[in-house]
Amino acid sequence: MPELPEVETTVRGIRPLVEGKRVREVVVRERRLRWPVTHGINRILSGKRILCVHRRAKYILIKFSHGTLMIHLGMSGQLLVVPKNVAPAKHDHVDIVLVGSKVLRFRDPRRFGSVLWVRGDPQVSPLLSKLGPEPFDEAFTGNLLFEVARGRRLAIKNLIMDGRIVVGVGNIYASEALFRAGIHPARAAGRVGLRRYQHLVQAIREVLADAIAAGGTSLRDYAGVTGEPGYFECSLKVYGRAGEPCVNCGGIIQHKVIGQRASYYCAHCQH
DNA sequence: CTTTACGCCTGACGGC
DNA sequence: TGCCGTCAGGCGTAAA
């Protein structure tokens, strides 16, 4: 399930392979994704040059002179760069065929992802305009979390997963960051002090940076640009480890559904 | 305004 | 072996 580190890994992987390349054609085999693939995408992109590839939150932004292709990997999406002679598989929904020998291929079995064309500045598009800061942006601080949490009773785990507060903290890394920060995931956000929020910001950055450095977590669906799985999975300290001993204290890792999401924590280490 | 629930979708998994 | 029910999970949207 792609989270920010997986998306960042994908961006870094495809960037040197597609930047500066011109699009030959776009082949859409299945347009029923999260939203329908933008109509006429072949006419929009054919003959145009990819200027650069960026990430904003979990969106992959492929910039052209006349607009931006916004790709979201959803739950099970992958963006691969493959030789043209590699036949599309069952869930390979969109091929961006490049001039030369390669194809930028969007694969997504569960079709929670999206492939959308945005004219002009993508930052003002509805999907991006309300997003909070990137976790590595200096605007993301313990003070920001503390202020925005004041008086709020929702679980802190839900707060840090709210893209309007900070982007890119998905379910896996929310549990991992809270474990590192020693904060119980169900604790009311308004009942966490400034110092602990500062520690949490640090923990979020650490866990994301570690995962990016490791090439992204691989649980079920993630694979790198050429198909190899990532390998951060073994670094997860609490996620998916219910019933196993805590790496810190040896206590049993707990599982609890918080805000409709599976959450993992050590009741002894996290308060 | 805040908070909660839902739905989209397929593959994996467990029970029988 | 195969069929079926259940569930995960990002995240926009609707509802409370």
Summarize the structure.
With 271 residues, the protein is an alpha+beta fold.
Secondary-structure map:
Elements: H1 4-18, E1 23-28, H2 41-45, E2 52-56, E3 59-64, E4 67-72, E5 78-83, E6 92-98, E7 102-107, E8 114-119, H3 126-129, H4 142-149, H5 156-160, H6 171-181, H7 194-214, E9 253-258, E10 261-266
Antiparallel strand pairs: 1-6, 2-3, 3-4, 4-8, 5-7, 6-7, 9-10
Helix pairs in contact: 1-7, 4-7, 6-7
The chain binds a DNA duplex (16 and 16 nucleotides) through loops.
Largest sheet: 4 strands, antiparallel
The coarse silhouette is: elongated
- Head-to-tail CA distance between termini: 28 Å
Strand percentage, roughly?
A: 15-25%
Runs in which pLDDT lies below 50 for 5 or more consecutive residues are 219-223
CATH superfamily of the largest domain: MutM-like, N-terminal
| Total count of domains | 2
Number of strands: 10
Q: Any idea of the CATH topology of the largest domain? A: N-terminal domain of MutM-like DNA repair proteins
CATH architecture of the largest domain: Alpha-Beta Barrel
- Order of strands, widest sheet: 1-6-7-5
Structural class: alpha+beta
SSE string, helix = H, strand = E? Answer: HEHEEEEEEEHHHHHEE
Work out the helix count: 7
The Cα radius of gyration reads: 20 Å
Helical content (DSSP H or I, runs of 4+) = 25-40%
On the 0-100 scale, what is the average pLDDT?
90
